[in-house]
Amino acid sequence: IPKIFWKYSSDRVLVMEFSEGGFVNDLEYIQTNKLSPKEIAKKLGQMYSDMIFIHGLVHCDPHPGNILVKKDEKGKLQIVLLDHGLYTELSHDFRYNYSQLWLSIMDSDIEGMKKHSAELGVGEYYHLFSCVVSARSWDTIINKKSGGIVANQVTTSEAEYIRRRISKYIPQLTQIFEKVPRAMILVLKTNDLLRGIEHALKIQKT
After folding, report:
1. Which of 61, 107, 139, 192 is catalytic?
2. 37 and 97, same domain (yes or no)
3. Which residue windows are transmembrane per the record (predicted)?
4. DSSP letter string over the chain?
């Protein structure tokens, strides 16, 4: 995080130091500077997992223009996070139920998904909510025999299947978004932006 110059900052303006680097989706910069797209995605994912599940304070605007990548003095990957105007705080209960929901999704545990979706404000549409949270199809989530989402990375064909089907569930999605806490909306938005970066880095399977 760039240094903040509080002397020049106010309630409406945040002044921070200038940081070198290329935008996180600039593949030419990444290749020229011998950075690894896989390492970038992994480090970015870990950084946001720590924010969501450990610290409970989340930067909610990780679009490519707000994230720079570069090498530090030792030649290691460094991620620079800009624009700190949109954050959300997550309560302990929220973090617990959200983490348990993720574990249930990863374990193909339908009862767990139902329970922790309900704790987050979602009732009968827990299956659809689990798909929204993970950006995976329900068939993949519940396919425990094949290892579910843990053993099967998302493919472009699965992503295309989800895109084709999503309009069918607009009324149910609207109900879900009306019931969940505002923090969940921001976390889902953040997850979508991070998945967009991963897609731009071209590390998804086909």
Report:
1. 61
2. no
3. none
4. -PPB-GGG--SS---B-----EETT-HHHHHHTT--HHHHHHHHHHHHHIIIIII-EEE----GGGEEEEE-TTS-EEEEE-----EEE--HHHHHHHHHHHHHHHTT-HHHHHHHHHHTT--TTHHHHHHHHHT--HHHHH-GGGTHHHHS--BHHHHHHHHHHGGGGHHHHHHHHHHS-HHHHHHHHHHHHHHHHHHHTT-SB-
